[in-house]
């Protein structure tokens, strides 16, 4: 007959239960319910093994006196009560995922117990790094101007308020709030970094409503300047950095909230002290190196972003009404620019030709010398010029905003306004010539490398893009071809051919050789040597690499100045070589170069010149007060770029017939 016992278990049963209990004892964050459940299970296991639980069983307390041995012998033997498996509850089998986490937790705890000092140092280091990261994100400025250590040794009021709220919350809401705050802070950090980039390159902050599309343009610019492989690597690195910022800030805020919760008393005192210090510093205006110690940078940035988004949406609605009003909108074609009938009109934009090129100590000497020399050369050919200043609607980039502002007479300072105007029937200056019926209109756009629906709004009968000018030479970074080649193609394909029906011609040219990164830069060659552009291969190969110029601010300024000299020389040599007694050239810059070149406090002004052989053309603008020659004086009149269209139309005899929305 098999033997049974109620005080022993098979190794598989008892050992498994003890292993599970040992594993659960290793957990660092066991809940009270879990501890209670574990205690109950331990009690049950001990009862199964016959171990004492600290209390005598009731049966033992009321045990009867022992029976005589004889009586015991006579009594029939009762079979021992068998202990069934049901009497000992089977241990729960842990899930694999739980076992894995528990194993890691156990290993971590054993490591901490084995290396207490190293563990403590590591924990403190992580906490300090999390605090530094969060504080840095809270006080991060949105501009590189004045960026220094003083900007990061400030007391962020948002951190003080956040700590007070965290201390008042129970565990689960506390963790949720900390994680959400970390994600929000990461988003604000990314916006601040975008602001830095936009302020440095475009002279304005990032607009989260309108500017996302410009990131694609930036990627295209990098690909043209640095190559596809480098651009892909940079793009991947930027994406990884953004994701890392979100992850690290979320983990950091959660970790700091846990530290505060574990040391409630100390954290409460510290928060009160920090709050008093912040209020004191704010009230007294205390500063370090000119930077206020008490900071509310994050709250200010958030308010600014909200206000900017609200103003952008309001501006869109208001500008739609403004675009419908046009002082010359109902003027008959017969009353538009009568003083320019029969003239060979050429409007030209020179990329990034800004006031800094004429007045900056580094760029100006070479550019001013070129302007003076070309003024004299044109005078020998019978051409004279007057020059002034226009304040551009854009800065550092987004050239199309400068083009459309000049031609529309409207202040087109963002992408939404540009889309609104392009979809409207507001008359452009170029379209005014078309409406006369006396001019053919044509555009030469070596920078256009895809469909260009804006052609309709500009009123251009024909447009030559980068692929329609027959160029077989190398690209010069972003620029698809040298300006000299584009001008010769304009001469061969357009200017040398008389329009049909005895009409005159109005041309719009946009030159690109002075586009950043200003490396490599083309050089002038003999006009009769241009051919298909292959002559530029050696010049391109011998030029600077874009990466070398981009990384050096001084070299960027020097090379920018050289690119302006090249573009002005190419344009004025074309005029000197091919211009006639009826040719009228209007050329100007679309915007200043980026802040790294023009300076963080540069104006938005660009030079503009009108050149002609016919003295009557310049006599019409004699009252403008512009400077004689191609170089405008420092004190020459400055107009908003949006004022040029109506002043030009009025000067040359156009009669206003307003169109009201």
TrEMBL record:
Q: What Gene3D superfamilies would the database entry show?
A: Alkaline Phosphatase, subunit A
Q: Where is this region: Disordered?
A: 1-99
Query: Which residue intervals are annotated with compositional bias (Low complexity) in the record?
Result: 60-90
The record lists the membrane-crossing segments as 118-140, 152-169, 176-194, 232-251, 272-293
Highest lineage ranks of the organism? Bacteria, Bacillati, Actinomycetota, Actinomycetes, Kitasatosporales
Assigned keywords, A-Z: Membrane, Transmembrane, Transmembrane helix
- Its protein name is Tic20 family protein
Classification via InterPro entries? Alkaline_phosphatase_core_sf
Q: Does the keyword field hold Glycoprotein?
A: no
Keyword Protease listed: no
Mark out the compositionally biased spans (Polar residues): 1-12
Q: Which domain of life is it from?
A: Bacteria
- The residue ranges flagged as biased composition, category Acidic residues, are 23-39
Q: Where is the composition biased (Basic and acidic residues)?
A: 40-49
